[in-house]
């Protein structure tokens, strides 16, 4: 993994299309919880190439910043994210269709952001404070937790735009909702309220206002940041996401991961803090030494004998 330089303060970074703020906002240096927000409110936070680049850059920094423990992802203004900015369109992507080779090499930029979020050792809590469509909806799927304003409108309008699912959403969505509901959403391309039974299982909590949604997400992220081990939460997310195909294989894997964490620094700190009834002081970095076989999916054999490529 390439090393990136983490800034003293995220709020001072010269981002144009996203904002990153500390919790509390007046903290002069990076805090345990950061709020990352789409920041094109006059365009309903519609996505541009630059916005995606900035979002991926922010996640690369956060991943390697020991001071940060959790991220809240939300939108500035009345929308979460309206998806691609159709006034700009997709003409800039046409060069990737010039040959079979260029098509094979093309990687959806939204997918790069989704993978940056997935691979980040700090969990993301989405605060869906307003409408989310297309990428604005699919980018919520890799998050650890999603909470939403109950009246927020969400949709996957790709079928109505002559496009297809992107940002790794065809992987995440059926795992989150089940194949039947995922296929329904993709096929209709229709818009639904977050409280609709078709999409509400995506959200661990529905709240009555956008403001309460963001406040709850920050409260939840703060609790996670102050009381959980980043190594434990990352490993459990990966166990759920990169799981083998049978109970016996999972037994082998989760036993290996569990015993590797027994006696680790975070394990000892977790037990000590519990016994002394005080807040734990977990390390802010992912403990690769305790799990040298991580990422296990990078080397797991597929049915055809190929290795699963590391994300």
Automatic annotation (TrEMBL):
Signal peptide: none
Gene3D superfamilies in alphabetical order: 2-enoyl-CoA Hydratase, Chain A, domain 1, Lyase 2-enoyl-coa Hydratase, Chain A, domain 2
Protein family: Belongs to the enoyl-CoA hydratase/isomerase family.
Name used for this protein in its record: ClpP/crotonase-like domain-containing protein
Protein species of origin: Parachaetomium inaequale
């Amino acid at each position: 993994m390439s090393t990136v330089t983490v800034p003293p303060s995220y709020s001072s970074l010269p981002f144009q299309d996203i904002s990153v703020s500390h919790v509390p906002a007046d903290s002069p240096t990076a805090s345990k919880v950061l709020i990352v927000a789409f920041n094109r409110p006059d365009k309903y936070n519609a996505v541009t190439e630059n916005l995606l680049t900035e979002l991926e850059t922010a996640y690369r920094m956060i991943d390697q910043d020991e001071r940060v423990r959790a991220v809240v992802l939300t939108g500035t203004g009345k929308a979460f994210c309206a998806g691609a900015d159709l006034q700009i369109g997709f003409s800039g992507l046409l060069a990737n269709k010039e040959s079979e080779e260029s098509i094979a090499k093309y990687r959806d930029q939204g997918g790069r952001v989704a993978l940056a979020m997935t691979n980040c050792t700090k969990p993301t809590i989405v605060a869906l404070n307003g409408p989310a469509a297309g990428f604005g909806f699919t980018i919520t799927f890799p998050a650890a937790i999603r909470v939403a304003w109950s009246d927020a409108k969400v949709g996957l309008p790709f079928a109505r735009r002559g496009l297809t699912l992107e940002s790794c959403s065809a992987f995440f969505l059926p795992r989150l909702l089940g194949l039947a509901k995922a296929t329904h959403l993709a096929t209709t391309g229709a818009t639904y309220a977050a409280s609709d039974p078709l999409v509400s299982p995506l959200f661990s909590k529905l709240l009555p206002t956008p403001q309460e949604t963001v406040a709850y997400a920050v409260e939840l992220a703060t609790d996670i940041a102050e009381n959980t081990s980043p190594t434990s939460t990352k490993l459990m997310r990966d166990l759920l996401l990169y799981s083998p195909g049978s109970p016996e294989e999972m037994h082998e894997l989760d036993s290996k991961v569990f015993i590797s964490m027994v006696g680790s620094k975070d394990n000892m700190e977790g037990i000590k803090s519990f016994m002394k009834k005080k807040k734990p002081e977990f390390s802010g970095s992912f403990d690769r030494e305790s799990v040298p076989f991580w990422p296990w999916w990078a080397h797991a054999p597929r049915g055809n004998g190929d290795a699963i490529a590391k994300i």
